[in-house]
Design a protein that fits this description.
Length: 345
Amino acid sequence: MLPNTGRLAGCTVFITGASRGIGKAIALKAAKDGANIVIAAKTAQPHPKLLGTIYTAAEEIEAVGGKALPCIVDVRDEQQISAAVEKAIKKFGAYTIAKYGMSMYVLGMAEEFKGEIAVNALWPKTAIHTAAMDMLGGPGIESQCRKVDIIADAAYSIFQKPKSFTGNFVIDENILKEEGIENFDIYAIKPGHPLQPDFFLDEQPEAVSKKMESTGAVPEFKEEKPQPQPKPRSGAVEETFRIVKDSLSDDVVKATQAIYLFELSGEDGGTWFLDLKSKGGNVGYGEPSDQADVVMSMTTDDFVKMFSGKLKPTMAFMSGKLKIKGNMALAIKLEKLMNQMNARL
């Protein structure tokens, strides 16, 4: 485990989802230094299936030496977020560190606040055992997971870095190796058991799957073999791209300067592209003439919902419905373009 140094004493940490799981683990790690913790979470009353509330978390934080401010916050409600920030400033003077679940915005915010606020994203290399994982993974999933402590230690390492450390997508195991941690079995729920890779990382799933099966474990994933591309058919996807094409202009191309590739599964699926580099822009079925800057993988249903405004790209990304490879800053630009098109779709 990464030892505490005391360097966060007096710092104020604003943590969403801190009533349980990963958020609470990060809070407790910082609290051991004597940090001030703003617990921004929805659970104020005991849940029948999920342990912990903002108030029980506050008791645990203060028991290990930190100061706590429990706030009822739904991160989808801007007013609740603003109210919690105001309470934090009133009680602690200001907040110096924040943990949000909005990794798509890391690069944009890092550039916007360069020199003032460091903005980084932290990803687990493997599945992390939380109440949510139990609900999604089913019985026995915990043996394929690591403890929340590894995320807490990795976040603690980031907290101690200078403001110049910004705009990074950090993997927990990688940053802890830099800190000198060599034995990662200490973080495993079941040391020695094969671990499930995190849903958002491409960690050679076929090789990991074989390792898990060799020990009798049941992998929760399987790499699909490539299937022949179906011919495009008329449908919601083609209609969506038609409307997108009608919305293109030289101004849109000039403001975006990117090529997007969509790998869609399901009816009317296949590979589609949106070229916002060529004059006037272009869309089509198949591969673009130049290399794509961003590759997005999702189902056709979610694609249509996303472009029509019924599914926010950030929520799709964070929930695993949308996988993104390539330039994240350009992915954010596409989200802004979608917002402009929603009225027509």
